[in-house]
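Propose amino acids for all 325 sites.
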Protein backbone atom coordinates (compact mmCIF):
# COMPACT_ATOMS: atom_id res chain seq x y z
CA UNK A 1 0.00 0.00 0.00
CA UNK A 2 2.86 2.37 0.81
CA UNK A 3 4.92 3.89 -2.00
CA UNK A 4 8.08 3.43 0.10
CA UNK A 5 9.47 -0.04 -0.54
CA UNK A 6 11.79 -1.45 2.16
CA UNK A 7 11.93 -5.11 1.17
CA UNK A 8 11.12 -7.31 -1.81
CA UNK A 9 8.82 -10.12 -0.64
CA UNK A 10 7.79 -11.69 -3.94
CA UNK A 11 9.68 -14.95 -4.56
CA UNK A 12 8.74 -14.87 -8.24
CA UNK A 13 10.36 -11.50 -8.81
CA UNK A 14 13.33 -11.84 -6.45
CA UNK A 15 15.48 -13.87 -8.84
CA UNK A 16 14.87 -11.52 -11.76
CA UNK A 17 15.63 -8.42 -9.71
CA UNK A 18 18.79 -9.99 -8.23
CA UNK A 19 20.08 -10.88 -11.70
CA UNK A 20 19.46 -7.39 -13.13
CA UNK A 21 20.90 -5.58 -10.10
CA UNK A 22 24.04 -7.78 -10.04
CA UNK A 23 24.67 -7.16 -13.72
CA UNK A 24 24.18 -3.38 -13.61
CA UNK A 25 25.98 -2.97 -10.28
CA UNK A 26 28.94 -4.95 -11.60
CA UNK A 27 29.12 -2.70 -14.66
CA UNK A 28 28.92 0.42 -12.48
CA UNK A 29 31.72 -0.78 -10.18
CA UNK A 30 33.94 -1.57 -13.17
CA UNK A 31 33.42 1.97 -14.48
CA UNK A 32 33.83 3.54 -11.01
CA UNK A 33 36.51 1.57 -9.12
CA UNK A 34 36.94 4.26 -6.46
CA UNK A 35 33.27 3.92 -5.50
CA UNK A 36 33.59 0.12 -5.50
CA UNK A 37 36.52 0.37 -3.09
CA UNK A 38 34.52 2.57 -0.69
CA UNK A 39 31.59 0.12 -0.71
CA UNK A 40 33.87 -2.90 -0.20
CA UNK A 41 35.78 -1.22 2.63
CA UNK A 42 32.51 -0.39 4.40
CA UNK A 43 31.26 -3.97 3.95
CA UNK A 44 34.50 -5.39 5.37
CA UNK A 45 34.38 -2.94 8.28
CA UNK A 46 30.77 -3.88 9.05
CA UNK A 47 31.68 -7.57 8.92
CA UNK A 48 34.58 -7.06 11.33
CA UNK A 49 32.32 -5.09 13.67
CA UNK A 50 29.75 -7.89 13.69
CA UNK A 51 32.46 -10.48 14.35
CA UNK A 52 33.94 -8.38 17.18
CA UNK A 53 30.51 -7.99 18.75
CA UNK A 54 29.90 -11.74 18.49
CA UNK A 55 33.25 -12.52 20.14
CA UNK A 56 32.50 -10.05 22.93
CA UNK A 57 29.14 -11.72 23.57
CA UNK A 58 30.75 -15.17 23.53
CA UNK A 59 33.46 -14.02 25.95
CA UNK A 60 30.82 -12.73 28.37
CA UNK A 61 28.90 -16.00 28.14
CA UNK A 62 31.98 -18.14 28.70
CA UNK A 63 32.95 -16.08 31.74
CA UNK A 64 29.41 -16.44 33.05
CA UNK A 65 29.64 -20.23 32.93
CA UNK A 66 33.16 -20.36 34.38
CA UNK A 67 32.38 -17.98 37.24
CA UNK A 68 29.17 -19.75 38.16
CA UNK A 69 30.45 -21.42 41.33
CA UNK A 70 32.31 -24.61 42.26
CA UNK A 71 31.95 -28.18 41.12
CA UNK A 72 28.47 -29.37 40.10
CA UNK A 73 26.44 -31.09 42.80
CA UNK A 74 25.74 -34.21 40.74
CA UNK A 75 29.48 -34.90 40.28
CA UNK A 76 30.79 -37.77 42.41
CA UNK A 77 34.42 -36.67 42.39
CA UNK A 78 37.46 -38.84 43.01
CA UNK A 79 39.86 -38.43 45.92
CA UNK A 80 43.06 -37.96 43.93
CA UNK A 81 43.98 -34.55 42.55
CA UNK A 82 46.60 -35.88 40.14
CA UNK A 83 45.13 -35.50 36.62
CA UNK A 84 47.46 -38.17 35.23
CA UNK A 85 45.74 -40.90 37.25
CA UNK A 86 42.24 -39.41 37.44
CA UNK A 87 39.41 -40.21 35.05
CA UNK A 88 35.82 -39.04 34.77
CA UNK A 89 32.99 -41.19 33.47
CA UNK A 90 30.29 -39.15 31.74
CA UNK A 91 27.29 -41.42 32.23
CA UNK A 92 23.80 -41.44 30.77
CA UNK A 93 21.08 -41.30 33.43
CA UNK A 94 20.80 -41.55 37.21
CA UNK A 95 20.31 -45.34 37.21
CA UNK A 96 23.60 -46.09 35.49
CA UNK A 97 25.20 -43.27 37.45
CA UNK A 98 24.15 -44.95 40.70
CA UNK A 99 25.72 -48.28 39.73
CA UNK A 100 28.87 -46.52 38.53
CA UNK A 101 29.21 -44.50 41.74
CA UNK A 102 28.91 -47.65 43.85
CA UNK A 103 31.18 -49.85 41.75
CA UNK A 104 33.98 -47.38 40.93
CA UNK A 105 37.44 -46.92 42.38
CA UNK A 106 36.72 -43.83 44.48
CA UNK A 107 40.38 -42.84 44.61
CA UNK A 108 40.82 -42.23 40.88
CA UNK A 109 37.39 -42.46 39.20
CA UNK A 110 34.82 -39.64 39.14
CA UNK A 111 31.24 -40.10 37.91
CA UNK A 112 29.20 -37.41 36.17
CA UNK A 113 25.62 -38.49 35.36
CA UNK A 114 23.82 -36.50 32.66
CA UNK A 115 20.07 -36.28 32.37
CA UNK A 116 18.90 -37.38 28.92
CA UNK A 117 20.18 -36.03 25.62
CA UNK A 118 22.25 -32.85 25.70
CA UNK A 119 21.81 -30.01 23.23
CA UNK A 120 22.95 -30.59 19.65
CA UNK A 121 25.56 -27.82 19.59
CA UNK A 122 26.23 -28.21 15.86
CA UNK A 123 22.92 -26.45 15.17
CA UNK A 124 23.63 -23.68 17.68
CA UNK A 125 27.10 -22.52 16.62
CA UNK A 126 25.65 -19.13 15.65
CA UNK A 127 23.64 -18.94 18.86
CA UNK A 128 26.18 -19.93 21.49
CA UNK A 129 24.14 -18.33 24.27
CA UNK A 130 21.87 -21.36 24.02
CA UNK A 131 24.88 -23.67 24.34
CA UNK A 132 26.20 -22.00 27.48
CA UNK A 133 22.71 -21.89 29.03
CA UNK A 134 22.21 -25.66 28.72
CA UNK A 135 22.35 -27.23 32.20
CA UNK A 136 24.05 -30.48 31.19
CA UNK A 137 26.70 -28.63 29.18
CA UNK A 138 27.33 -26.26 32.09
CA UNK A 139 27.77 -29.32 34.30
CA UNK A 140 30.45 -30.79 32.02
CA UNK A 141 32.29 -27.47 31.68
CA UNK A 142 32.48 -26.99 35.45
CA UNK A 143 33.40 -30.61 36.15
CA UNK A 144 36.27 -30.69 33.64
CA UNK A 145 37.58 -27.37 35.01
CA UNK A 146 39.53 -26.35 31.90
CA UNK A 147 37.43 -23.58 30.35
CA UNK A 148 35.38 -23.85 27.18
CA UNK A 149 35.73 -22.92 23.52
CA UNK A 150 38.40 -23.84 20.99
CA UNK A 151 41.07 -21.10 20.94
CA UNK A 152 41.12 -19.21 17.63
CA UNK A 153 44.08 -19.57 15.31
CA UNK A 154 46.21 -16.44 15.76
CA UNK A 155 48.91 -15.09 13.50
CA UNK A 156 52.50 -15.62 14.60
CA UNK A 157 53.33 -13.35 17.52
CA UNK A 158 49.69 -12.32 17.99
CA UNK A 159 48.23 -12.55 21.48
CA UNK A 160 44.72 -12.38 22.86
CA UNK A 161 45.29 -12.18 26.59
CA UNK A 162 41.83 -10.78 27.37
CA UNK A 163 40.15 -13.96 26.15
CA UNK A 164 42.90 -16.56 26.57
CA UNK A 165 41.99 -17.63 30.09
CA UNK A 166 38.36 -18.33 29.18
CA UNK A 167 39.11 -20.74 26.32
CA UNK A 168 39.65 -24.44 26.87
CA UNK A 169 43.14 -25.05 28.31
CA UNK A 170 44.28 -28.67 28.28
CA UNK A 171 46.76 -27.97 31.09
CA UNK A 172 43.87 -27.18 33.46
CA UNK A 173 41.92 -30.37 32.71
CA UNK A 174 41.19 -32.09 36.02
CA UNK A 175 41.12 -35.60 34.56
CA UNK A 176 43.56 -37.41 32.30
CA UNK A 177 40.72 -39.43 30.80
CA UNK A 178 37.23 -38.28 29.84
CA UNK A 179 35.29 -41.53 29.34
CA UNK A 180 31.87 -41.47 27.70
CA UNK A 181 29.78 -44.38 28.99
CA UNK A 182 26.32 -44.82 27.46
CA UNK A 183 23.88 -47.66 26.82
CA UNK A 184 24.61 -50.06 23.98
CA UNK A 185 21.52 -49.10 21.97
CA UNK A 186 20.44 -46.46 19.44
CA UNK A 187 19.62 -43.84 22.09
CA UNK A 188 22.95 -44.45 23.80
CA UNK A 189 24.79 -44.03 20.50
CA UNK A 190 22.93 -40.75 19.87
CA UNK A 191 23.81 -39.40 23.32
CA UNK A 192 27.44 -40.39 22.78
CA UNK A 193 27.49 -38.57 19.44
CA UNK A 194 25.95 -35.44 20.99
CA UNK A 195 28.66 -35.40 23.68
CA UNK A 196 31.39 -35.93 21.08
CA UNK A 197 29.95 -33.08 19.00
CA UNK A 198 30.17 -30.75 22.01
CA UNK A 199 33.74 -31.83 22.76
CA UNK A 200 34.76 -31.38 19.12
CA UNK A 201 33.27 -27.91 18.80
CA UNK A 202 34.19 -26.54 22.24
CA UNK A 203 36.98 -28.69 23.75
CA UNK A 204 38.79 -30.08 20.71
CA UNK A 205 42.30 -29.99 22.27
CA UNK A 206 41.17 -32.75 24.67
CA UNK A 207 40.46 -35.03 21.69
CA UNK A 208 43.65 -34.00 19.92
CA UNK A 209 45.71 -34.76 23.04
CA UNK A 210 44.13 -38.22 23.37
CA UNK A 211 42.16 -37.53 26.55
CA UNK A 212 38.72 -38.67 25.32
CA UNK A 213 37.60 -42.31 25.34
CA UNK A 214 34.45 -44.37 24.79
CA UNK A 215 33.67 -47.15 27.26
CA UNK A 216 32.76 -50.55 25.83
CA UNK A 217 30.16 -52.25 28.05
CA UNK A 218 29.27 -55.86 27.21
CA UNK A 219 26.23 -56.67 25.10
CA UNK A 220 25.56 -60.07 26.66
CA UNK A 221 26.13 -62.22 29.72
CA UNK A 222 26.18 -65.88 28.70
CA UNK A 223 25.81 -68.30 31.61
CA UNK A 224 25.82 -72.04 32.19
CA UNK A 225 25.07 -73.09 35.71
CA UNK A 226 27.15 -70.91 38.01
CA UNK A 227 29.65 -70.04 35.29
CA UNK A 228 29.18 -66.89 33.24
CA UNK A 229 31.11 -64.98 30.60
CA UNK A 230 30.60 -61.58 29.00
CA UNK A 231 30.34 -61.02 25.26
CA UNK A 232 31.01 -57.68 23.58
CA UNK A 233 29.64 -58.68 20.17
CA UNK A 234 27.27 -61.18 18.58
CA UNK A 235 30.24 -63.15 17.28
CA UNK A 236 31.78 -63.39 20.75
CA UNK A 237 28.41 -64.49 22.16
CA UNK A 238 28.23 -67.31 19.61
CA UNK A 239 31.79 -68.38 20.42
CA UNK A 240 30.96 -68.65 24.13
CA UNK A 241 27.81 -70.66 23.39
CA UNK A 242 29.81 -73.02 21.15
CA UNK A 243 32.41 -73.39 23.91
CA UNK A 244 29.74 -74.30 26.45
CA UNK A 245 28.15 -76.77 24.00
CA UNK A 246 31.51 -78.41 23.41
CA UNK A 247 31.93 -78.95 27.13
CA UNK A 248 28.40 -80.30 27.49
CA UNK A 249 26.17 -80.75 24.46
CA UNK A 250 22.84 -80.54 26.31
CA UNK A 251 23.92 -77.75 28.64
CA UNK A 252 21.23 -75.24 29.60
CA UNK A 253 22.58 -71.88 28.52
CA UNK A 254 21.20 -68.53 29.64
CA UNK A 255 21.70 -65.37 27.61
CA UNK A 256 21.07 -61.93 29.07
CA UNK A 257 21.08 -59.00 26.66
CA UNK A 258 22.11 -55.77 28.38
CA UNK A 259 19.96 -53.00 26.94
CA UNK A 260 21.15 -50.45 29.47
CA UNK A 261 23.99 -49.87 31.91
CA UNK A 262 21.44 -49.75 34.72
CA UNK A 263 20.71 -53.46 34.21
CA UNK A 264 24.16 -54.32 35.56
CA UNK A 265 24.81 -54.29 39.27
CA UNK A 266 27.82 -52.31 40.54
CA UNK A 267 30.12 -55.35 40.65
CA UNK A 268 29.26 -56.33 37.08
CA UNK A 269 29.76 -52.77 35.82
CA UNK A 270 33.13 -52.57 37.54
CA UNK A 271 34.30 -55.95 36.26
CA UNK A 272 33.24 -55.44 32.64
CA UNK A 273 33.52 -51.73 31.97
CA UNK A 274 35.41 -49.81 34.66
CA UNK A 275 38.21 -52.03 35.97
CA UNK A 276 41.43 -50.83 34.26
CA UNK A 277 42.73 -54.40 34.32
CA UNK A 278 39.81 -55.84 32.32
CA UNK A 279 37.95 -53.05 30.51
CA UNK A 280 38.16 -52.05 26.87
CA UNK A 281 38.32 -48.34 26.00
CA UNK A 282 38.21 -46.82 22.53
CA UNK A 283 40.35 -43.70 22.17
CA UNK A 284 38.65 -40.95 20.16
CA UNK A 285 40.91 -39.58 17.44
CA UNK A 286 40.71 -37.99 13.99
CA UNK A 287 42.68 -37.70 10.77
CA UNK A 288 42.74 -33.90 11.08
CA UNK A 289 41.68 -31.33 13.63
CA UNK A 290 41.08 -28.25 11.48
CA UNK A 291 37.80 -26.37 11.21
CA UNK A 292 37.60 -27.00 7.47
CA UNK A 293 38.86 -30.60 7.44
CA UNK A 294 37.02 -33.85 6.77
CA UNK A 295 36.22 -34.54 10.44
CA UNK A 296 34.55 -31.16 10.93
CA UNK A 297 32.70 -31.70 7.65
CA UNK A 298 31.43 -35.05 8.95
CA UNK A 299 30.01 -33.38 12.08
CA UNK A 300 28.27 -30.84 9.85
CA UNK A 301 26.76 -33.64 7.76
CA UNK A 302 25.61 -35.83 10.64
CA UNK A 303 24.57 -33.19 13.17
CA UNK A 304 23.83 -30.07 11.11
CA UNK A 305 20.64 -28.73 9.52
CA UNK A 306 21.10 -30.14 6.01
CA UNK A 307 18.64 -33.06 6.00
CA UNK A 308 19.14 -34.12 2.33
CA UNK A 309 22.91 -34.29 2.84
CA UNK A 310 22.49 -36.42 5.98
CA UNK A 311 19.98 -38.70 4.23
CA UNK A 312 22.41 -39.22 1.36
CA UNK A 313 25.19 -40.11 3.82
CA UNK A 314 22.96 -42.61 5.65
CA UNK A 315 21.84 -44.26 2.40
CA UNK A 316 25.45 -44.53 1.26
CA UNK A 317 26.61 -46.18 4.49
CA UNK A 318 23.44 -48.07 5.53
CA UNK A 319 24.97 -51.45 4.73
CA UNK A 320 27.88 -50.74 7.09
CA UNK A 321 25.68 -50.07 10.13
CA UNK A 322 24.93 -52.64 12.83
CA UNK A 323 21.85 -51.11 14.43
CA UNK A 324 20.19 -52.63 17.49
CA UNK A 325 16.75 -51.09 17.97
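Proposal:
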Amino acid sequence: SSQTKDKLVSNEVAGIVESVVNEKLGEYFEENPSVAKIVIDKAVLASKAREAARKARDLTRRKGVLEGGGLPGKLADCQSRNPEECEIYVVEGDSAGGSAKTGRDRRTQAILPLRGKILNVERQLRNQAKVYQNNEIQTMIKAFGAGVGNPPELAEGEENLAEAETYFNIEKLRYGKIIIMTDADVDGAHIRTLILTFLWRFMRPAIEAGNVFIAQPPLYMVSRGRASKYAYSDAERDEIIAEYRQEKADAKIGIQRYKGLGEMNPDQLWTTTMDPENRTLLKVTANDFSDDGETSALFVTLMGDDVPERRAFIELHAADADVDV
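Residues 261 and 295 are 29 Å apart (CA to CA). The first helix runs from residue 11 to 31.
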